Amino acid sequence: MLPNLQTYHRPTTLEEAIRLIQPPGTVPIGGGTLLIPSRDPAVEAVVDLSGLGLTYIREEETGWAVGATTTLQQMLESPALRERTQGLIAEAARLTASRNLRGQATIGGIVAAGGFESPILTLLLALDTIVTFYAPERRQMPLDQFLRERGDILRRGALITELCIPQPTGLSRMGMAFVNRTPRDRPIVCAVVETQWAGEKCVRAHIALGGVAERPIRARRAEEALQGREWSPEVLDQAAALAAEPLNPPTDFRGSREYRRAMARVLVHRALREVLKSDNMPGNPGCD
Ligand SMILES: Cc1cc2nc3c(=O)[nH]c(=O)nc-3n(C[C@H](O)[C@H](O)[C@H](O)COP(=O)(O)OP(=O)(O)OC[C@H]3O[C@@H](n4cnc5c(N)ncnc54)[C@H](O)[C@@H]3O)c2cc1C
């Protein structure tokens, strides 16, 4: 529980919510799964976001818009998101939190506070997701940049309102690979790849890694090694090596720096091979 909590607000307009979160000691609350057990003594007031009408998943011109109070379980069950992610949303959501937590935890709360190994953040990063937030004026930025600047942005009092998952411009093919201690445990390291194809050429490759830095990150050099090329076993080896090379992962009780770095290479390779196993991949180069 929050020992110094004195005030609970439940605004029904965005304007009101943005104004209410400004004073020091006041924070937004989504599902409360992380905030309430945190026992944070600095929290004196909470702004409940559930009355703002931010629970939705809808198709817009730019892609799939997901409101900030949409729960992880609603995302897992969305046929549209399953189709867009080739089913990976369900796997990533299951690996992020248990069934009970998924029904409560919101995607806004996860973007605000999700951990360095979060499979759902890693998936959203590979999808080039855009974050909309108010700080206090409306701003949009790629999730990659948001996670980099998250501490500063949220410290100044920001409200995340929406994510947008862009539609692919070409034929999209995805792959995901992870290692965990037990089948229900959160991954120690995970890799998600989204690729877009024109014939046998990969025109766009996004590779995201969780569990290898202080936040989920993109492997930009590896992406460059794949784009504009036909894939061969050598190209895949090179990309996997480039993804792992610059990493300096943290060590904790679940995995050492060396283990996480070695797994990053193995898992990027596996995720790329998953892409090649897709039914509608032309030619299936390098896939056995
Ligand atoms: C004990 C426990 C430990 C967990 N540990 C982890 C972990 O290590 N890694 C992990 O990835 N997940 C973890 N989770 C899962 C957790 O449920 C989610 O990571 C998520 O952060 C919680 O979402 P929520 O909506 O419940 O957030 P809340 O608990 O409501 O809020 C979490 C934080 O995000 C802020 N926030 C919420 N919504 C917004 C918004 N729209 N805009 C701006 N700020 C917002 C809150 O002010 C608060 O600081 C844990 C859950 C539990 C119960």
Describe the model.
The structure is a single chain. With 288 residues, this protein is α+β, with helices and mostly antiparallel strands. The chain folds into three domains: 7-48; 57-166, Uridine Diphospho-n-acetylenolpyruvylglucosamine Reductase, domain 3, CATH 3.30.465; 171-276, Enolase-like, domain 1 (2-Layer Sandwich). The chain has twelve helices and twelve strands. The protein has helices spanning 14-20, 35-38, 72-77, 79-84, 88-96, 99-102, 107-113, 119-126, 143-155, 220-226, 233-244, 257-276, and strands at 7-9, 26-29, 45-48, 57-60, 63-67, 130-134, 138-142, 159-166, 171-179, 189-198, 201-210, 217-218. The protein has a five-stranded antiparallel sheet with strand order 4-5-8-6-7, covered by helices on one side. Helix 10 (220-226) packs antiparallel against helix 11 (233-244). The longest helix is centred in the last third of the chain and has 20 residues, at 257-276. Bound molecules: flavin-adenine dinucleotide. The site of flavin-adenine dinucleotide has 29 residues, from strand 2, helix 2, helix 7 and strand 8.
Briefly characterize the structure.
With 288 residues, the protein is an alpha+beta fold. Helices cover 36% and strands 24% of the residues. The chain folds into three domains: 7-48; 57-166, Uridine Diphospho-n-acetylenolpyruvylglucosamine Reductase, domain 3 (2-Layer Sandwich); 171-276, Enolase-like, domain 1 (2-Layer Sandwich).
